[in-house]
Amino acid sequence: MRRLTALIPAMALLTTALLAAAPSSGAAAPAAPGPALTRVADTQLDNQALYFVSYDGLVNNNSFQKNGLLTYRGYQYAAWYTADRTAVVARRALGASSWQTARLPHQLTVDDSHNVISMGLSRVDGRLHLNMDSHSNGFFYVKSAAGLLDDPAGRAWNSGQFGAVQTTLDGLALTSQFTYPQFVATPEGRLQLSYRAGVSGNGRNALAEYDGSRWTALGEWSASTGTYTSEHGSSTARNMYLHGIDYGADGRLHAFYTWREQNNAVMCAGGGLTNHDTGYVYSADRGRTWRNAAGTAVGTTGGSDTVAVGDAGTVVDPLNPDHSLMNQESQTTDSAGLPHAIISYVPGRFGQCTTNYVADRTANGRAFHLFKDSSGAWKKTEIPVPLNSSQRTRLVLDRYDNAYAVLPYGRIVAASKSSGYTDWRTLFDGAGLSAFGEVVVDETRVAQDGVLSFMYQRKSTGTTPSPLRVIDFRLPS
């Protein structure tokens, strides 16, 4: 009995130690990892891709082309113009070092870097769609055979898999002043096409939709009319430039944008940009009705009341036209469906009047991360890395909602969600790429295999063709 009594305290101590070591159902989950990169591959698409500089950009690497690079069902697809101006579309199995190419029966009509190739996929019928070669004029459209994307390993890849090049969407004529095609897949697998009708400074955004059997014009949803007045003067015409158009996890269609005024009188100097303000709207009904961040309806697609420059509650980051605010920068949504954007301009500490937007942005331009937090407040942080370029930055979020900004020349900076996106730092300085400027990010791939992948073209001179490549970085898994 004395021996048993002596063992009781020791057993109690052992039990206490075991309970302390055992996991508790209420224990905190491990902290999510911060942003990180591991370079895994750098493959060549074309050793002799078409090269000319226009509007300070390249036709194969204008970052606003949605999508010049995309991933679906274990394969990645790319599109570009090769040295003889022919449109080319390629694919590879993820992880493969070589690409299969197919030449399309179309050649770029003019040396204009706006005339990009954009791709989209319609999950309802497994087709790949391409819209190309347009800047305020007609467009060229081609789609693949049905099911081509559903069974890539079992289907040959050649030009015979694509239909004829058309100047309509299967007979649907949209506008004679067409620019900036952006394909976006709906949650149900239909495909929508966003585009601008009209010209710079006097245009309207519009949507069309493909249901697997035919295209339908949904109509215009932004206005070009109304009066905007700055401290310098007024303008009565404009166009909305989208930073993107994307469906979030909640099924909402999100759009950040800036306005460009037609009348240069709104600027302090003629060499700047008439772009002003960052706006935001969303649609909860697949692009039919548009609402401001507070949920108030501000426009209807195809209706008489479209989203206009004076609509209340649409400006989420005000800025006058004197800072060379860039159009068509970048946006995405996080795992909770909250919207994020990258915008860039010359901050006021460098002066209150840009006089040459290329020179001033190259010397003093900075990018900013703008996002809506879970409380509904808009937050904005300057990315503390000079752009050293007039060109655009792309935004990607990993599975933990850490943010990665791909700057001109392929540089990558990142910030953690846990910091509230305040700890931006450089993860890759672009060394060895010799990239011209903007890059084309695969917006679809990160969610599928955790890889940040972008297309870049090496610097050249004049119109001498240069290599076009795709580089891949693994993100935290």
From TrEMBL:
It comes from the Bacteria. This is BNR repeat-containing protein. It comes from Streptomyces scopuliridis. The lineage of its organism: Bacteria, Bacillati, Actinomycetota, Actinomycetes, Kitasatosporales.
